[in-house]
Amino acid sequence: MAETPRLGVIGIVVTLAGIAARLVLAGPPQTGTGKAVTAAQQQRTAKVSCRAASERRLENVHLEVAAGDAITAEGGCTLLIRNSTIVAPGWGIVVQGGAEITIEHSTIQGGTGSLSIEDGGEVTIQGSTFKGRIAKRPEGQLTNKGGNTLP
To answer: Which whole number is the average pLDDT over 75-96?
Structure first.
């Protein structure tokens, strides 16, 4: 059974197929659901973790954490970040263990660095801005589809 997210609805949509799960954070904030950063972005402060065979999407989100890394993806998870801003004092995003992340039209900023790709992590970037270094181990993969501002 699958539910399609509706524009303007903020919440969790779970699609079960075997053991896979999908979390969608999308749409502009409604009264009482968060502080608007722009007309199209919802303010969030909780770290995001994507593990195993899960699929997640962060769209139109301003994620700013107070400590550590903002997003950690590992173990075969698939994550799409689109039209979002990610800010952290640690790493903006850490990708490892076969996780696949696509970043489109977003800004990623980290005090330690914007993006760390390790242990078989795969990242595709397009039309995004990265503030803070990008670290990639030889077993990590970074695909640049253009239009990016890199450190």
So the answer is: 96
